[in-house]
Write a structure and sequence with these properties.
Length: 122
């Protein structure tokens, strides 16, 4: 089993630049990919960004490309999501996701964190 714990987030003004972190523990040797998803009220959970555990490939959803940056902090088994130029539509619960392959669909994810709320005020 893999445990994922998110941190960061909170209430942010539009244009702000918070940083989320996802700390992985347990059987991380089986992880190939870690991603971030988000879920706004009344909407389905959607893919935001992802990175291979080796850090050699990154993926972004269209709405965040150029504003968000995902990175791997290898020494501490952490994946960070730097969010820049936040907009009110970025509001939602952000979840860290881990899997043995690259995934963009929430229904296929093996491991989930508990989520962290990001609220962007205009």
């Amino acid at each position: 089993q893999v445990q994922l714990v998110e941190s960061g987030g909170g209430l942010v003004q539009a244009g702000g630049s918070p940083r989320l972190s996802c700390a992985a523990s347990g059987r991380t040797g089986g992880l190939y990919y870690v991603g971030w998803f988000r879920q706004a009220p009344g909407r389905e959970r959607e893919f935001v960004a992802g990175i291979t555990w080796r850090g050699d490939l990154t993926l972004y959803a269209g709405p965040v490309k150029g504003r968000f940056a995902i990175s791997r902090v290898g020494a501490v088994n952490t994946v960070a999501l730097q969010m820049n130029s936040l907009k009110p539509e970025d509001t939602g619960v952000y979840y860290c996701a881990g899997d043995r392959t690259i995934i963009r669909q929430a229904s296929m994810v093996d491991y989930w964190g508990q989520g962290t709320q990001v609220s962007v005020s205009s």
